[in-house]
Every structure is written in C-alpha cells, then in structure tokens.
Amino acid sequence: MLERPFFRHPEMLASAQRVASFARLRAQKLDRDGAFPEDEITALAEEGLLAAPLPPKLGGGGLGQDAGSAALLAQVLMQIGAGSLPLGRIYEGHVNALGLVLAYGGPEQQRRAAADALAGRLFGVWNTDDRQRPLCMEGGVLRGRKILASGAGWVGRALVTAATPDGPLMLLLPLSRGERADLSGWTAQGMRASATGAVDFEGMRVPSSALIGEAGDYQRQPVFSGGAWRFLAVQTGGAAELLSLMCRHLRELGRDSDPHQRVRAGESAAALETATLWVERAARHMAQDALPPEAKVAYVNLARGVVERAALEILTHAQRSVGLMGFMRPHPMERVARDLATYLRQPAPDLALQMGGAFVLEQEGGPW
Ligand SMILES: Cc1cc2nc3c(=O)[nH]c(=O)nc-3n(C[C@H](O)[C@H](O)[C@H](O)COP(=O)(O)OP(=O)(O)OC[C@H]3O[C@@H](n4cnc5c(N)ncnc54)[C@H](O)[C@@H]3O)c2cc1C
C-alpha cells in the first residue's frame, strides 16, 4: 500500500523532475519492442503523481483543475516527456482517463477511481478502433477490439469507447496484467516502450456500473478536442530534450562557437519557447470559464500546428547540427528523435488547423 501523498505545487514539479531523471537513465535500455516502463510507473505512483490529478476531497492534489495548476500540469507533463516520451504518453493517458471519470462519472465511480489511483493503479484511454472489428456493446457484452492502445497489457483500468444501440458510450474496465493484449503489431519507428498494442474485448461482459456518463459524452466539447493540449505538453518536453542533447553534443565537441551552429541553436530555442508558451496558455484556457467552448477548442487546434512545426524545426536543426552521430545508436539523440517523430503523429492535424482557422475568420474583434 502506498503512503497517502501530501501535495504542494513545488513538490509536484520536483517529483516530476525526479521521475524524469530516473526515466532518462533507463530509456536506452527500454528502447526495444514489447518494453514497458514498469519501474517508472511505480516511481510516478510513489511520488504521488498518479493521484495528483484527483481533487483534494478525493485524496489528490487538484493538479490541472484550475488555471494555475493546469499550467503546473503542463510543466509536469513537459518534464516527464523530456525524461521519456513513452512514459509521458502513458502518464498523459492516465491523467486523461481520471479527468473523464471526474467529468462524467457518478460519485461512487469517482470514489472508486480515486481509490484505485491512490493504490497505484494505472489508467488509460483507448478510443482508436480496429477498422474491421470496432468495439461495440450489445446486451452488456462486448465485441471487437481497440488498436493503438498505449499500455496494453499494463493498464489496470481502461477507459474505452464503445458503440451501443443508444450511441457511443464510455466504459471503465478493470484488466489484469497481460489480459487480452497483443503488442505484436506495434512495429513503429519510435515509442517502442509505450506498449501501444491491440486489445481484444470479444465476449467480455460489462456490468452497468462500468458505464461512465451518457452516450456522446466522450466527444463532448471542449474537453474532447481541447484535451489535446496535454499531449502537446509531452511533445514539447521531448523537443526540449532534443535541443538539450544537441547543445550538449556541440559543447562536448567544441563546435559551439561556429556561427551556423549558433543560429540553429538560437532558432531552436525560440521555437521551443513558442511551443511552451502556447501549451501553457492552452492549459490555462482549458481550465478557466472565461472563454466560450469553441474558442478553447480553436486555441488548442491552432496550438497543435504550432507545436508540431516547432518540434519538426528542432528535430531538423538537431539532426543537421549533430550530423551522422545523431543517427547512430547509442547516441540518445537517435532514440529521442525517433520517439518524437513518431509521437508527433496525432489524429487529423490538417482538420485541426482548418477548424482553428475557420473560428478565427468568424470573429470580428480578434479571436481571444
Ligand atoms: C505512441 C502513440 C500512442 C498512442 N496511444 C493511443 C492510446 O492509448 N489510445 C488511443 O485511442 N489512441 C492512441 N494512439 C493513436 C492516436 O490517438 C491517433 O489515432 C494516431 O496517432 C493517428 O495518427 P495518424 O497519423 O494515423 O492520423 P490521421 O488522422 O490518419 O492523419 C494522417 C494524415 O491524414 C490526414 N487525414 C486525416 N483524416 C483524413 C481524411 N478523412 N481525409 C484526408 N486526409 C485525412 C491527416 O491530416 C494527416 O495528414 C497513439 C498514437 C501514438 C503515435
């Protein structure tokens, strides 16, 4: 049983930094198919970070629940993403799942989820369906499977979306270690340690107590699209790590006084700062009521393009500055570049920008 954590803001950031340092040390070892950062998840639990996003009345630290602590959550996600992008992805899914249970679950479901998070159980959100066999539920029995499910085989509480005769529903399902998971299809270039696999739910019986919210809640705005700011924070952390690896390499080789290298370092730092400012502002916007929902969604949709462009610019600069050595194992840049390039692929980026642009065009007095 974990000790009940005591939450204060500076401590939560320091906790994230400690876990990130630990994850950074082990990331090379975990860069293989089928790997999962089990000890790092334990470290997150021991530092209280699995329970931190719960409100204080449920034993948490309220991390991410108002504008100030949403900016803190952004920093926590950036730190963890800098230490390990696979770990950042898994932690982001955990935070997302708890947020959905808190937003749409009943009091008893919230209480149980809080007890699980306090006990160190890992949550995840699995929305992506197998095209041939999408997840659906009829008469309390599931058919089909999820794909691209991070932490498959490791997540103990999976929040999945399933089509039902009443519309799409969220279900919170308990899973044991390895249950129904298949990681054989996860052959991506990077993010190997995220255990992003398929999970086959065929024949699973679902009690009514597992149903979270009402049909359509998962896609309700602004939470559905606006929640993307959290993966942007993790990606920004990965981009920061890449820049730091690039600068360290150039210093160690005595190549840091070259004007071309300085230009690339300066441009990368500016791009990173831009991404960071957008992510922190997106986090604040999402946590406060001042903006209408469509403005929040538009801001996050545009932030997606900003972070993607910044990260790709840093990736290109880092690879050009370090050169071939940055493509050779075990140089850490080789792995972080692969992880970042893979994790930058998120759903419908063109549509996100287009929708953000449409919102801007509709506004008379400036969008925000
Ligand atoms: C490491 C990792 C972990 C993940 N973990 C999870 C998880 O735990 N749970 C989960 O549910 N999902 C997970 N995912 C999946 C993720 O949410 C997205 O589904 C996935 O990353 C989509 O990437 P994509 O490039 O295929 O997107 P797409 O949306 O297919 O985009 C690819 C390209 O096609 C364009 N495009 C999109 N739609 C159209 C269209 N209709 N017509 C024309 N062009 C179009 C896009 O703009 C883009 O240029 C994970 C993904 C990664 C990389």
List the helices and strands and how they pair.
Elements: H1 9-26, H2 38-46, H3 67-83, H4 85-104, H5 107-118, E1 123-126, E2 136-138, E3 141-143, E4 145-149, E5 157-164, E6 167-174, E7 181-182, E8 197-200, E9 211-212, H6 223-226, H7 228-252, H8 259-287, H9 293-322, H10 332-343, H11 349-362
Parallel strand pairs: 1-5
Antiparallel strand pairs: 2-3, 4-8, 5-6, 6-9, 7-8
Helix pairs in contact: 1-3, 3-4, 3-7, 3-8, 4-7, 7-8, 7-9, 7-10, 8-9, 9-10, 9-11
Bound molecules: flavin-adenine dinucleotide.
Description:
This protein is an alpha+beta fold and 368 residues long. Helix 7 packs antiparallel against helix 8. It is globular and about 65 Å long. The chain starts with 8 loop residues before the first helix and ends in a 6-residue tail after the last helix. The chain has eleven helices and nine strands. It folds into two domains: 9-219, Orthogonal Bundle (Butyryl-Coa Dehydrogenase, subunit A, domain 1); 223-362, Butyryl-CoA Dehydrogenase, subunit A, domain 3. The strands form three sheets. Strands 1-5-6-9 form a four-stranded mixed β-sheet, with helices on one face. A three-stranded antiparallel β-sheet has the order 4-8-7, with no helix packed on it. It has a two-stranded antiparallel sheet with strand order 2-3. Bound molecules: flavin-adenine dinucleotide (FAD). Residues 89, 93, 124-128, 148-150, 191, 194, 196, 342-343, 345-350 line the site of flavin-adenine dinucleotide.
